[in-house]
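Suppose a classmate hands you a notebook page containing two proteins, each written out with its sequence and a corresponding row of structure tokens. How would you begin to make sense of it? This section walks through that situation. The first entry is reproduced here exactly as it would appear on such a page.
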Amino acid sequence: MTETAMTKIASDLRPEAPLPTLQEARQFAWSPDEAKQRGIYGFDSRDVRSRPFNMLRSRLLKLHRNKGWRLFGIVSATPAVGKSFVATNLSAALSRTPGIDTTLVDLDLRRGSIATNFGLTIERGMRDFLEGTVPSLGDLAVHPEGERLVILPTDNAPARSAELLSSPRMDAMVAAMRARPTHSIFLCDLPPVFANDDATIVTTKLDAFILIVEEGRTTRKQIQDALHVLDQAPCAGVVLNRFDGGLLTDNYGYGYGAGYSDYYNK
């Protein structure tokens, strides 16, 4: 792609141009029963399994209120520790907050699983948008029937992910996110830190990141190395997944299974 073409892409998506709203997103069939079958508990605050995500929601809302942070990345050091599971459930919980508009963006361009979590079969996704073959995010946006969550999914096709996430089109999209009203919160599901440099690229563009680790699987060194690699962005917290000992002081644990369904394919 020539420099002139990349400049045109950036200008085509003006930062002040609004991202898809709930009313503009395409609705797909959804029900509380299907949510539970798919391990998505965040939509139902009465379900005890939603409790850890409600606590995480409170943490993010406090950061939003006190620091003005609205763009959060969800990342892990390694695959298969529940990163996308947390991103899905946390976005569901946030979407139930009165006065908050929530958008879940799948930026794990080479191994996206958000669409799978919601049972969606997609032909075009964020990869296509960043490549320029899909002109508008409105062409991708969907939302589950009866819920207030907007989803921007991606597929699992091969992608020049680092180049796409560094592109002017990505920068323009982030600028458009920041141009949204202050009650808009974006959760971006990112690749594992050590899969490639995608997470490092994106977190520098966001307000903060949340690191997902798993008891008995993620090592102390992996956590330390991941935090070091991502040290150019603030860490909003560390979530300890599949923890059987209750809640920690600074972390959030939950002792039930479910997690990242597929290993990341380098």
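The notebook's second entry, a different protein, reads as follows.
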Amino acid sequence: MGRSRNPRRERGAAEPVVEQVDGGLAELMPDRERARGWTLLIDGAPQSYVDLDDPAYLSFEYQRRLGHVIDLAAPLGKPIHAVHLGGGAFTLARYVAATRPRSTQQVVERDAALVQLVRRALPLDAGARIRVRSVDARAGLAKVPDGWADLIVADVFSGARTPAHLTSTEFLDEVRRALKPCGLYAANLADGPPLAHVRGQIATAAARFGELALVADPTVLRGKRFGNAVLVAGDLPLPVAELTRRAASDPHPGRVEHGRALTDFTGGALPVTDAAAVASPAPPPSVFR
């Protein structure tokens, strides 16, 4: 059993919470700038940020990009059905609950010990319609009814790498099955030069969806550094113009690629199948320094 410290504030300051979970050493670190802000790290790698007083606040760059997708997935404030593959500290599920009240959500997070830690230390709003399943992401997705989801978000990392079985056309077949015809799929991809993983994931999504867009820091897209890119896919035209505007206005501005430019970006990469799938590349140690 891992050691644990109570997150209760002492003399006005919160204390870190440290516990061993299934995926490694989990640390909940208090934010000295925001009274009830917490960062979740697993084995030293930042995973999630949550502000319990303001669940609509998204601190991480890639989570802000995913927040834009959530905002554009349906008319402002309209409840949606959302599936989150990968839970972390439930940051994006909290965001949906705050910005789209009465939404119904499923979170699939394999690490049961992490789920218990987060539920205890950073409890969800009792009124939020959020169901959490502690199973493998693909197995959890298989339980989602056909055509149920308005939005499916994939943000799954094991040892800072996306597992191979969540990168294939067969996986996306399950995503398509669970999505409504007008639904959106968004995936957090992590890669560095020469961006072979991202290019392969674009080709894989293009084999299953009619419309694609990619949002990332321009330096990541140019292969200058390791970083995150958010892939958005659907069968109806995407809100590219508004996504571009929002990404450009972020504290760390992002660029949106779509259409022919995105096809050219893949450089002839082929779709990934279960038989050939590999995990995403591990980030260099310098990423978390």
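A careful reader of the second entry would note: The chain has nine helices and twelve strands.
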